[in-house]
Amino acid sequence: MTAEDQPEGILMDESSTADLRAKVTEAWREFAGAMADLIPALEPGSHVDVTLDPTASGTGTAIYSVSMRVLDDGVVEALAVGNAELPEGFRMDRSAVADMVALGWSPPGVLADSGESFGLRTSTDQARRLATTVSRTLRDVYGAPHPAFLVYLVHDADDEPLDTVPLGTARHEPDLDAARLDDLDDGLGGGADEALPLDDRVRTVVATMSKTTVDQLQQDADGDIGIRAGSAMVFVRVRDNPPLVDVFSPILTEVEPTEQLYVRLSELTNRMPIGRLYCAQDTVWASVPVFGRNFQPTHLMLAVQVMTGLADELDDRLHGEFGGRRFFGEGDKPPAGPDDHRPGMYL
Prior knowledge:
- This protein is an alpha+beta fold.
- The chain has helices spanning 20-41, 54-57, 94-102, 127-141, 173-179, 198-209, 259-271, 297-322, and strands at 47-52, 65-70, 75-80, 118-123, 150-155, 171-172, 225-229, 232-239, 244-252, 276-280, 283-291.
- Strand 2 (65-70) and strand 3 form a beta hairpin.
- Helix 1 packs across helix 4 (127-141) and helix 6 (198-209) crosses helix 8 (297-322).
- The longest helix has 26 residues, at 297-322.
């Protein structure tokens, strides 16, 4: 995507260096750009629903979502959840409501048939502006930390699911159904009747995400599943006691453990939406655990998506500051200068 293709003004964080905040901003740009391309390509009657995954974000019964429907003559109507649809404790304050209006949303009930939702009416030739508004709403008002925390559905006029290009790192809900072997009740998901062993269910989920078969997964002698992510490597390991799935990555090896490194890892961990960073001997690790008891495929999918993006970003960032070797980094080793340690940014 070129600079000219970017949605106008979307989430431009001021930063003169390539830090983690810029990486997250770029993920949102990719999400918005894909949405801007998708909307004009849909037939009248089609609709797109984007939701902040409540199981991943910890919002429980609070469902933050935006729906867009393409009408005749290139008209697009969008609805965004309002306070009347949210449980107490998760409702927007006056400032957030003002932000919604400033983004272009009409208050609930103003747009015809909007009911208790915020409404917006535009056209397909304004799809980039709509994508900007939706992205800002999900991130800045509803609090989605990264597009990987979003799930979406695309349906046609008959409410049949459509297979479309991905919306960045957001998760397509039909893919989640496939990861459950078309039916979580058959034993892939949690519950009292867990017919398949945990390691079989994990391999099925990872194979589905990788668009391959279980037999073609890359596994080492310890049974760890390997997934390449740029210059990093992510592993998925199943532990028996207690039942746990560990999604982890050796971010850097042959790195010198220093007080500055420990402080940096602590800062970054505090800013991570899930998971942790730590140093063991001369290796920096990133880890996102997933409970094996009452296993939920969606949780593993989120952990893998977050870790593959995180590992590829962090190994470059930390190598530039502390040296060491990346998993696929050729010629790595020299540490950065002692004055080159910059403070952590929000992930």
